[in-house]
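cron nightly-structures :: item 1 of 1
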Amino acid sequence: MRSKLFVPGTRPELFHKALSGPADAISIDLEDSVPEGVKAEARARVAEFLSSDEVRSSAKLIIVRVNALASPHFEADVLAVVLPGLALLNLPKPESAADLHAAVAVIERAETVNRVEHPVGILANIESPKALRYAADIAAADRRVVGLQLGYADLFEPLGIERGDAGNVHAAMFAMRMAAGEAGVFAYDGAFANVQDPDGYRAEAEMARRLGYLGKSCIHPSQIALANEVFRPSEADIAFALRVIAQAQKADGRKQGVFLVDGRMIDAPFIRRAEAIVAIARNLGIVAGE
């Protein structure tokens, strides 16, 4: 999931267009982009879309951001959108493992009511100082949690933290990446608001990639190609990873735990990284599967 395109829940005419677009995933929003007075209408439109034949026949990863657990809309959102067409539920503003447990209880009920056979995963947003401090606990709270996502606006703006300072962004990215790594889930980068600054988007995406992030959110179609390019393994990285895996297989036969590839010492962590790169390349169709 190099890219996921944000689509407001109030714009059903964009749902189908996004479904056929180049983003690896689409993320329909029922939270901040939907005014209070039309929450129910947006929820019904999203549920209708998720139940459509087009969604059922699509391979696109579909995510819905519901309203926060503490809002009066959370349960109604979950009961409406936890359907067979939904892959991930994007949970905003959790601050503890207890919040995840409460959310999962509602999701499980919705799966039973809506006869969903495959469990819906959770992408949990990290959007407050407390959430960042407990990010590893949030990520490890339930096996449904597959990833953590940074929410810069809610995390930075109330504290007066300058988003344009790359050092501030790096600090938040690094902290969440370590929490995700501790829990064994992926880290995903948040939105970049200035759609007229592609260089800024690219710079932030490249920073996230260097920190091991899976991809970056897109709030405009113009950002999709940038995310797809930045988070695509380079030909050089793929070639090196394939050489590492090939040498690892030979070394295993010789019962060697450490060996050299292109003059670099390789052991278990490097092999795992190589395997991850090749897996991404195979998913993208760059490398043929075994």
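cron nightly-structures :: done
The first strand starts at residue 3 and ends at 8.
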